[in-house]
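INFO  loader      accepted 1 record
INFO  loader      residues=114
INFO  predictor   begin
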Amino acid sequence: MAYDLTGKIKLIQEPQTFNSGFTKREMVVVVEGGKYPQEINLEFVQDKISLLDNLEPGQTVTVTFDIRGREYNGRYFNNLQGWRISMENESPTTDAPPVQDGPPAEVYDDDIPF
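INFO  predictor   done
INFO  writer      dumping tokens
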């Protein structure tokens, strides 16, 4: 399931490559909403790290991401793994096909029987 968040880029980390060959790069996006702004850390892995190449702190972006979870030594961890980024007034930057989150609008029926 895909999620979106929109905010301003606070920082973009340098890529990290591990002994296993796994590469990741992290970005922090500040989301305004509610009583306090939230600083959300998102990670991009393998070929998706290139999505961050032309971005800079201060830009407003919408990031599409998946929530990933795992257990390690009895503790549970979650990651927000980004896979698409669009800047204000631009189209998304990814090669992934668009994800449809629900049925087309014409499928909805206001005449509910209960």
